[in-house]
Amino acid sequence: MSLKGVGKIIVQGPARTRFLSIPATVAGDSAFPFVDGEEVTVQIDGDGIRVCRREEE
Fold it and tell me: Where are the strands (E) in 1-57, listed by range?
């Protein structure tokens, strides 16, 4: 089972862009599927969001 942690939505400056912090306990888990700098797809999924590896176009 993968680790769980508490992240945070961060606002930076006047733009509408938001950043999601992923706790070190989750990012350091061997099951964490992303590498630093990787582009991802973010999609609203009901009352949450889904973050997936970006599909090649």
Answer: 8-11, 18-21, 40-45, 48-53
Distances (CA, A) of 47 to 13, 20, 34, 51: 25, 16, 23, 14
The token pair at 47 is: 């009352």
Q: Give per-residue pLDDT as tens, 1-57.
A: 678 999 999 999 999 999 999 999 999 999 999 999 999 999 999 999 999 999 876
Q: Exposed, middle or buried, 23 (CB in 10 Å: 0-12/13-18/19+)?
A: middle
**What is the pLDDT at residue 1?**
64
Q: Which of 55, 1, 48, 45 is nearest to 20 (CA)?
A: 48
